[in-house]
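=== Structural record ===
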Amino acid sequence: MTNILLLEDLPEIRAWLRQLVVQVFPRAMIAEAARVKEAIQLTDALKFDLALIDLGLPDGSGVDVVATLREKQPDTQSVVVTIHDDDEHLFPALQAGAFGYILKEQPREQIAEQLKRMSQGEPPLSPSIARRVISYFAAQNQPREPALNLPHVALTDRENEVLLRVAKGFTLPEIGVQLGLSRHTIADYVKQIYRKLNVSSRAEAALEAQRLGLFKR
């Protein structure tokens, strides 16, 4: 990650995020914004590899910035960093294109580790958020509408095993221990699964696992 956007309106939290980013990505160039308008202006002037985005901002929602980045800079990985763990904030952010969703209440070390794992293809999604996604869709009586038009995707038995564990919120090292494989091997499986399913986040993977009926096995 060489160019990073920080969108956070509280100066002390923004400083805390900057310290965290410098710790994880010491060579990165960091641009800061405190308003939605400022962040969108920055996306017109600069190209970002990563954007850490708060949701509740004085002039709107960070979801608008996630959507803007998805449209203007589709290669940018937008990660929501917020205190909100409810459905009303989570699902609009994911639908707008958020690559990850991190809760600020997590320990600093845990957030740093989640950001580090992005380089290995693992989206930074808090385990509790992954479980919320799974619970939400498991409670629905009807399959989600897009699934009606999705083509059949053939995953191997091993890929199904990995996908199920990813959807349940296990980290790559944890999955490796469970399946007796190295972390790097699991990372390769995850990349292959994401490519086959045409998804880009743990949350989307959880939805696909639900659609494929893996939780019933």
User: Anything to note?
Assistant: The chain is about 50% helix and 15% strand. The beta strands are 3-7, 29-33, 50-53, 56-57, 60-61, 77-82, 100-103. The chain has a mean pLDDT of 82.
